[in-house]
Amino acid sequence: MHHQRTTGLTATQFATLLTALTNQLIWGKPGGRPPALTPAQALKTTLLYHRHNLTEELLAEIFNTSQPTISRTINTIEKALAKVFKPLEQPLKMSLDVPGSLVVDGTLVPTWNCRSLGKTNFSGKHKRTGFNHQVICTLDGRLLVITDPLPGARHDAHAFRAHGLDQLLDSSTLADKGYIGLGLATPTRRKPGVKVPQGVKDNNRIINR
């Protein structure tokens, strides 16, 4: 399987991540039975699981192994990846300390519709269950921040405040209408029965682009 089509990583990025991962792992017990999956297969399994929300049963079929093996593999790789990425973590304020305007928006990461959390995670906007993440980038699309998850039923404005972003971002930050009233540069909401001046239309068009 091609790395970029399946995991979103180039071959070079995948190899770099795999090298960093193997430095955090002892794959298989010395003198014991060889693991069902190689480290590369284990990493790809975990990335597929998270990127495409595939079931463990389907991954077991793809990699010709059992569902319990897939479950243990994902758990092991997740813990190792947490160690790999730990040194890259930095305070939110430092991540946003870049010149120029920024863009903030919310995104829903889909999850299974568990009965116990269905109402909490159900997004009325997206008509499905998931977690709300706030994503911040530069105007040219360079990713700066993806916040920790909040229940999908939460509105972007609530998530914005809950993560303390209202203390870090100002009117130089572009956002959509879901952030109106938070001190950001947002499009102007049209009032029923009121004609929108051309200048306002032009400003909205610039922000939306």
The helix content is 25-40%
- Our count of helices gives 9
Mean pLDDT, rounded to whole units?
88
Total beta strands: 5
Task: Provide structural commentary.
- Helices cover 40% and strands 13% of the residues.
- It is α+β, with helices and mostly antiparallel strands and 209 residues long.
- The chain has 2 domains: 86 residues, no CATH class; 117 residues, no CATH class.
- Strands 1, 2, 3, 4 and 5 form a 5-stranded antiparallel β-sheet that branches.
- The longest helix is centred in the middle third of the chain and has 19 residues.
- The chain is elongated and about 75 Å long.
- It starts with a helix and ends with a helix.
Question: What is the topological layout?
Answer:
Layout: H1 3-7, H2 11-22, H3 39-52, H4 56-62, H5 67-85, H6 92-95, E1 102-110, H7 118-121, E2 122-123, E3 128-138, E4 143-146, E5 150-151, H8 156-162, H9 198-208
Antiparallel strand pairs: 1-3, 2-3, 3-4, 3-5
Helix pairs in contact: 3-5, 4-5
